[in-house]
Write a structure and sequence with these properties.
By secondary structure, this protein is mainly beta. The protein has a single domain, classed as Beta Barrel (Porin), CATH 2.40.160. Helices cover 10% and strands 64% of the residues. Strand 5 and strand 6 form a beta hairpin. The longest helix has 15 residues. The two termini are 30 Å apart.
Amino acid sequence: MKQAGFIFILIIITSCLSFAKTPTLVDLRAGYYTDVEELYIGGGFRTGLGRSLDLNPNLEYVLIEGGTYMTINVDLLFTIMANRRNFALLGAGLAISRFDPEGKAEGDSDTGLNFLFRYGFITRSAIPYFQAKVIMGDYDDIVLGGGLEFRL
């Protein structure tokens, strides 16, 4: 992946974390990339930046044959509904996709945008959620999945 892309993402994450106002949640996720028709696994964290705004950097590794495909995402999530039992978030952010085929063929990186909706259930320990995401760039995709968030 392009070094400038990694540096840019690290600067964004570090800057946003310096303004974090709430405890961090770590998440593990899995689901399905509909365009490549493959499953993915991933993880990230979510931390508050303000009353209804969260930062959610994450990585998703798509389980393809014949190469490596992953996305690194930095999403901002806005709470549109929350109560004692559940919550709903709308989000958007930066996506960097990387595809490296097996063999001597050269890999390819793409920078795009994420738009997502997340619905979750508040519990005392793990917080389960479902998510639908659209990635727009050279590698457009619809990503359906879910995960568990854990309080640190």
